[in-house]
Amino acid sequence: RLSCIRNNTWLASCGVLSSGLAVLSSFGLMLFCGVPFVVTVANAPFLILGVGVDDMFIMIASWEQSLRRKDKSNVKSLLAETYAEAALSVTITTLTDVLAFFIGTWTAFPSVRSFCLYTGTAFVFCYVYTLTFFGAVLVLNHKREQGNRHWLTCMRVDVGEDQAENCLYNACCIGSGSRQPSEPEGEHPMSIFFQKYYGPFVTNKWIKLLLVLLYGAYLGGSIYGCTQIREGIDLRNLANDDSYVIPYYDDDEKYFSTYGPRVMVVITESVDYWNESVRLGIESCVQNLE
Q1: Over the stretch 13-71, which tens digit does the pLDDT of each residue have?
Q2: How far is CA 113 from its chain centroid?
Q3: Residue 159's domain spans which residues?
Q4: What InterPro entries does the record tag this protein with (predicted)?
Q5: Which of 62, 70, 179, 224 could form a disulfide with 86 if both were Cys (CB 3.0 to 4.6 A apart)?
Q6: In whole angstroms, what is the distance from residue 149 CA to residue 143 CA?
C-alpha cells in the first residue's frame, strides 16, 4: 500500500520472523534432547517458512474481513472473530503436517527419523507462534493504524492534508487514514476474479462434467502409477558426511559396481569335511548356485 499508515511491511516481516522462531525453537529443543542433526535437516526451514507464511496470509485475510464487519475499536471482538475463522484452517493444515512427519519417525533409517522429528516439532512451534506471537503483532499493528502512526517511524502523521506538491512526499509522509469511511477497503483483485469469473465458470454443467472426467482420468493414472513404483534409494545420502560408511559406498561403487552384490552361503549344520564325498557335494552345490 502506498499509504504510510496502512503499509503492512512490518506485519509481513513478523510473519516470516514467526517461522524463524519456530525453526530455532525446534532445533534447540531437539539438540537439547540429543537428537542427531543430519544434513537433510537443513532443508526443514524452507518447509516451515512455506507453511508459516501460508498461515500468516490466512490470519491477515481473516483480520481484514473482521475489520469490515466489526467495530474497529473493539480489539477483543476483532481478534476473537479472526481466530474463529482462521484458527480452524491453520489447525487442520498443521495437524496433517505434524501427523505426516511424526509417522515418518517410524522408519528404520536414522537420518530420515531425525529429519521427521526436527520438522514435525517445528510445525508444532510454528502453530503456537502463529496463534500467539503473530496474533499479538496484528493487534499492535492495528493500534498503530488507529493512532495514525507511520509504518516505519511510528510517529503521528497528518491525514488527508496536501502539504506538498511532491507525490513521493505525500505517499511517505501523509497518510490516507486508517480505513476511513470515506475510503472503504476495496476487494482484492484475486477475490473479484474468483467471485465473478472463476466461480460461474466451474459451476457450468458442461464444465462440471469435464472436470469429473478429468479427475477420473487423473485418479486412474495415479492408481496405475502407484502400481509401478519401485524402491530406489542411495544409502550414501542417509549417513552423516563424516560417517565411515561414506568412503565404503564410494569405493564399492567405484571398484565393485560391475560385479553386483556379493552372495554368501552359510551351512548351519555340522559337516564332515574330511569326507571326500561331502566335499564334492558342497562343491557341486556351489557350482549350481553360480
Answers
A1: 999 999 999 999 999 999 999 999 988 899 999 999 999 999 999 999 999 888 887 77
A2: 18
A3: 8-178
A4: Patched_domain-protein, PTHD_SSD, SSD
A5: 62
A6: 9
